């Protein structure tokens, strides 16, 4: 067993990080105090960061990153006293989020050799929060290591990326993701292969597809969307349904958490169990509710974006058939539908549709109202008139 077992399909990156962990243990050149791990969604950026943190905290005297010692197990589980993992569900990481991390970075590790701070989605650092973080990254305490994760180098502020050592990750092969699902989660091999391929090698989404029949049904309905659209009315109705499903999914996944957060806040403020929130604590409760609304909107956008990525995968398959390319289909279970779409349109139609899907993704990222963005997309996805 090793801390690197779940970092699938990332041999070159693992080699770099493992060598750095060895250099850190020996006190030789090769260790850096600020790292930037980049890779597309599903490449396992945060998994690689946690594995690296575990290797740095490993207590085994011989094997670095053994995966069985207390340091490795607690770092991987997120409970190591000297490893801090920061993640956000908001659009931006704000100054008030970064300042506590900087304070933590100044403290010597209470357990283990290193104080490790992982920032997932470092691309969400804005100019203000990034500049606050910059000085600490430039001049870190001697036993502090920063691990920043982002989709691409260009997504991170130039001042931060220029002071970090870059380790690129790639999309892992589908068969490696399927093997992980079988080994780690006990998924049936056939289902694991389907989920890995359908998720386009995104490990987290593949696991969800393999375990959640509802997720598979929703994905199937999204992929049938282009075939349903014949007129403007169909497009408007379908867009509304897609946005509504995304909102319901976002709400169902956050309702219980929101209630628990509010109960915990009221308890901490001494207002637990009261029928009416006292005036003295209303501001804090209102701020929490605003944060929860932003989180729900972000989750809805993420759900919609995932649906759009699935549509891009479908259009890619249609183009593969139209061009006769000798590559496997992402959605091989829909071969009949894909061939019908390929025969009823041209490669130019398919590329036009794919451009429209990508434009919708960009609009959602720019906080365009989801319904407007999806309605515009649905109108473009309508079957071409011949």
Topology, pairings included?
Layout: H1 11-26, E1 34-38, H2 45-57, H3 70-77, E2 83-86, H4 95-105, E3 115-119, H5 127-138, E4 144-150, H6 158-161, E5 165-168, H7 174-185, H8 189-198, H9 203-211, H10 213-223, H11 225-228, H12 232-268, H13 282-323, H14 335-343, H15 347-365, H16 370-381
Helix pairs in contact: 1-2, 2-3, 4-5, 7-8, 7-9, 8-9, 9-10, 12-13, 12-16, 13-14, 13-15, 15-16
Short synopsis of the structure:
With 386 residues, the chain is α/β, with parallel strands linked by helices. The chain contains 16 helices and five strands.
Primary descriptors:
386 residues, alpha/beta, five-stranded parallel beta sheet, 5 strands, 59% helix, 6% strand, globular
Describe this structure in words.
This protein has helices at about 10-25, 45-55, 70-75, 95-105, 125-140, 160, 175-185, 190-200, 205-210, 215-225, 225-230, 230-270, 280-325, 335-345, 345-365, 370-380; strands at about 35-40, 85, 115-120, 145-150, 165-170. By secondary structure, it is an alpha/beta fold. It has a 5-stranded parallel β-sheet, sandwiched between helices. Strand 2 (about 85), helix 4 (about 95-105) and strand 3 form a beta-alpha-beta unit. Helix 1 (about 10-25) packs parallel to helix 2 (about 45-55), helix 8 packs across helix 9 and helix 12 (about 230-270) packs antiparallel against helix 16 (about 370-380).
């Amino acid at each position: 067993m090793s801390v690197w077992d779940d970092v699938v399909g990332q041999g070159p990156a693992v080699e770099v990080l493992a060598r750095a962990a060895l250099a850190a243990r020996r006190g030789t050149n090769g260790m850096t105090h600020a790292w930037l791990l980049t890779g597309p969604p599903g490449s396992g950026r945060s998994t690689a960061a946690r594995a690296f943190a575990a290797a740095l905290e490993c207590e085994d005297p011989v094997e670095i990153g053994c995966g069985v010692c207390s340091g490795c197990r607690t770092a991987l589980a997120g409970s190591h006293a000297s490893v801090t993992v920061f993640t956000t569900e908001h659009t931006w990481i704000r100054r008030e989020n970064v300042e506590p991390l900087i304070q933590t970075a100044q403290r010597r590790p209470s357990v283990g050799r290193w104080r490790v701070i992982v920032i997932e989605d470092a691309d969400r650092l804005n100019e203000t929060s990034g500049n606050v973080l910059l000085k600490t990254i430039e001049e870190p305490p001697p036993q502090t290591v920063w691990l920043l994760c982002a989709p691409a180098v260009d997504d991170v502020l130039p001042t931060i990326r220029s002071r970090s050592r870059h380790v690129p990750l790639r999309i892992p092969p589908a068969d490696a993701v399927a093997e992980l699902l079988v080994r780690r989660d006990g998924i049936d091999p056939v289902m694991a292969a389907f989920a890995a391929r359908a998720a386009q090698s995104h490990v987290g989404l593949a696991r969800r597809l393999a375990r959640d029949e509802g997720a598979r049904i929703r994905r199937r309905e999204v992929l049938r969307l282009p075939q349903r659209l014949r007129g403007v009315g169909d497009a408007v109705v379908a867009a509304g349904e897609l946005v509504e499903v995304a909102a319901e999914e976002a709400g169902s996944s956050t309702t219980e958490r929101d209630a628990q957060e509010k109960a915990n806040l009221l308890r901490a403020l001494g207002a637990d169990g009261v029928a009416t929130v006292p005036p003295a604590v209303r501001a804090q409760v209102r701020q929490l509710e605003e944060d929860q609304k932003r989180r729900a909107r972000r989750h809805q956008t993420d759900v919609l974006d995932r649906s759009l990525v699935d549509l891009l995968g479908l259009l890619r398959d249609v183009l593969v058939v139209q061009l006769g390319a000798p590559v496997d289909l992402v959605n091989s279970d829909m071969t009949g539908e894909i061939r019908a779409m390929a025969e009823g349109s041209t490669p130019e139609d398919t590329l036009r549709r794919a451009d429209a899907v990508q434009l919708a993704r960009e609009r959602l990222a720019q906080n365009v109202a989801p319904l407007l963005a999806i309605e515009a997309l649905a109108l473009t996805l309508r079957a071409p008139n011949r």
